[in-house]
Sequence to fold (90 residues):
Amino acid sequence: MQMLYNSDSFAVVMFDVPADASITGSDALSRGGYEIVDKFARKEIFIEGALAQSFKEGVEALIETEPSEEEVDEYLGRFSSLMQHPVVLH
Fold:
């Protein structure tokens, strides 16, 4: 687990679970994804697979332009409509 981004509006955490060491070759897939939290809406989403890959590519393209915090938050805001899980503190 690694915190990638944290602003007043959003937080992004990357989860990277290594492949099972007993599986070798092309069957050895790493698992993981990204948790995106909308702090104002108090909702979150965990994305993995193709959506996570698309998210990663979008972030990498955005970073190349040296974005402001507002631009990063605007990009993350695109995922707010997908967020269904309320943030619950333990």
In short: The helical segments are 49-64, 69-77. The chain has two helices and five strands. The radius of gyration is 15 Å.
